[in-house]
Amino acid sequence: MREEQQELWDNYKAWLLEQAKDKANLIAEDCKIELRTPYAVGIVEVHDLDTAVVELSVTNLADGENKFYLHFELKYLAHAQELFTEMLDTLLGLENRQKLRILLCCTSGMTTGFFRDKLSEAAELLSLDYEFSAVPFRELYQAGFDCQVILLAPQIAYHYKEACQVFQDRLVLKIPPKAFASYDAAAVLQLIKSERENQQHTTEEQAVAKALGEIESKESVLSVVVMPFKGHTRIAYRIYQKGVPVSNEMVIKGRLRVAEDLQDIMDTVGCRCRNFDAVGIAVPGVPRNGCLDLDETMIDPKLNLQALLEEKYGVPVVITNNVNAAALGHYAQQDRYQNILFISHPRGYTMCGQASIVNGQLVRGSHNIAGEIKYLLYTAMEPSEWREHQCTSDLDKIAKYISIAIRAGIAVLDPEVVIVRSEMLADMDRLKKQLVADYLPEEYLPEFVHVTDEKMAEYALLGQMILTLEAMEEVREPINMAAKCKGLSV
């Protein structure tokens, strides 16, 4: 580490130790600081990669889940302090979520209420940090997102598939009838323990998918996908070399500051990996002339982000809507469909995003607003409903508004398949019934495929890489590069 960066690290380390004093148990080493509370552990570590790269992380001790993760080149003390403050807020904010939250659900909630008490007593005797609650089935899709484990009573076990689709990042289990009938708390606790271990093992075995095709390009592309959610933001990024992913990372933050977060990523990639020849960035909303139409808390709408990044890093920067990138990525990795409608409805957001592939062509429009369904949906509901819809967990309401977006796309494009990204609404049969109820003849229904948030990010990373290569090679027909990439896997 260079002398000036060593001095900067020493100053940063002294400052953050003072900030965290009396707020967490501290273990300080030369290049690493551990901040531990009864509920979570935070790590601040500096890596010497020709330059100093600082890594910040917060892990929830109850479920082992990362709640905060990012890295940045240590250049400015004020910026480093700002990021640590956000990390410390996340660490201390986990105080009320230290236990593994387990939700029991049955028809009315009365039977599981008694079983909940039995499980709580058993967990306390075994010194397990488990917190049990019980709800009737009608409240499951509201309460379930606040828990890590969901237990379905035998009488509603037929909802298991639907619950797994909705709660894809939670562990959903069916209580064995024998254990439920006899209130065998020990058997259920063992079931929870063993299934959580299996879940963690499966997650650890997942690897970055490799591309199966060849791309006629030698450029190295940094592909970035920004995906805000209710209460947090995830930024996935990947280096592609000749279309093959050679590195893969995810940033997890509470607050999104687009310009600052992207520069941190690009600085870090430059330090940790090889140089990149171009950058592709997929974002929500409508990129226009280098600017983004996001909330002012995320970015100054007057800032020309493209010009800023190109001047600083000296490489071409291509900014695209993230749903467009995902639609193109999905198209490129399959050979079945030529006409695709992609609907994205992130949790906590009022409106859907939409993108279309028509006869193998990505439809963007003259102002890049093709698929901006908000201009349609704002006329389909009263302003007083916007906030209500944003916060709702009512699956019927969600299906209703997603149906409006899909019907518009079907009426104009008549796609072969509709890809739906929605954390809340994973049941495609429910959605098809809503469409039919809204006077769309059943014989005109396309195929429907539900995808997870993670899968959308994978598609968008691939699609953004294709769009970036397309821009670099000045391809006249927008989808030509995607055609070259047909058969790629995400």
Architecture overview:
With 490 residues, the protein is α/β, with parallel strands linked by helices. A five-stranded antiparallel β-sheet has the order 1-2-3-4-5. It has three domains: 3-97; 100-205, Response regulator (Rossmann fold, 3-Layer(aba) Sandwich); 220-484, ATPase, nucleotide binding domain (Nucleotidyltransferase, domain 5, 2-Layer Sandwich), CATH 3.30.420.40. Helix 1 (3-20) runs parallel beside helix 2 and helix 10 crosses helix 15 (453-473). The protein has 16 helices and 19 strands. It is flat and about 65 Å long. Helix content is 39%, strand content 26%.
Give a brief rundown of this model.
This protein is an alpha/beta fold and 490 residues long.
The CATH homologous superfamily of the largest domain: ATPase, nucleotide binding domain
How many strands, which pairing sense, and closed or not: the largest β-sheet? Answer: 5 strands, antiparallel
- CATH architecture call of the largest domain: 2-Layer Sandwich
Number of strands: 19
Kindly, what is the distance between the CA atoms of the first and last residues, rounded to a whole number of angstroms? 37 Å
Strand order of the largest sheet: 1-2-3-4-5
Structural Rg: 24 Å
List the helices and strands and how they pair.
Blueprint: H1 3-20, E1 25-28, E2 32-36, E3 40-49, E4 51-60, E5 66-73, H2 77-93, E6 100-106, H3 110-125, E7 130-136, H4 140-143, E8 149-152, H5 160-166, E9 171-174, H6 177-181, H7 185-205, E10 220-229, E11 232-241, E12 244-253, H8 258-272, E13 278-283, H9 305-313, E14 317-321, H10 322-332, E15 340-345, E16 353-358, E17 361-363, H11 374-377, H12 383-391, H13 395-413, E18 417-422, H14 428-437, E19 447-451, H15 453-473, H16 480-484
Parallel strand pairs: 6-7, 6-8, 8-9, 10-13, 13-14, 15-18, 18-19
Antiparallel strand pairs: 1-2, 2-3, 3-4, 4-5, 10-11, 11-12, 15-16, 16-17
